[in-house]
Specification:
By secondary structure, the chain is mainly alpha-helical. It has one domain (2-105). It has helices at residues 2-36, 51-64, 66-83, 95-105, and strands at residues 42-44, 47-49. Strand 1 (42-44) and strand 2 form a beta hairpin. The longest helix has 35 residues, at 2-36.
């Protein structure tokens, strides 16, 4: 009896881990897709509007949830900035916090 209970718990953990691994893999794939499609942008003042980034973020939010989608968007923004194709406006949710930290240090 104890062996069957252990096997059942092991199978349940495997299913849970499979879901987490799937979400992490899809997060990376969505980030890569957003970076690959970032060649199309429209300059609007000091920003670059990336319509495909928004589309990828929406699809990621629906398929893998808001936290993994936000992580995917953050990864894509960091990669685009490292490549020199993005702007600081890609980090919009973090911009007020970072600005406050920088200003408070000086």
């Amino acid at each position: 009896m104890a062996g069957r209970k252990w096997e059942k718990e092991k199978a349940e953990r495997a299913v849970e881990n499979r879901g987490k691994v799937r979400s992490i893999v899809l997060t990376g794939l969505f980030a890569a897709t957003a970076v690959l499609l970032s060649g199309v942008h429209f300059p609007v003042g000091p920003i670059k509007a990336f319509p495909f980034q928004h589309m990828v973020n929406i699809v990621a939010g629906v398929l893998i949830g808001p936290w993994y989608a936000a992580l995917s968007a953050l990864i894509a923004a960091m990669i685009r900035n490292a490549m020199g194709t993005g702007t600081i406006f890609a980090f919009n949710p973090l911009t007020p916090y970072i600005t406050r930290k920088i200003v408070s240090e000086y």
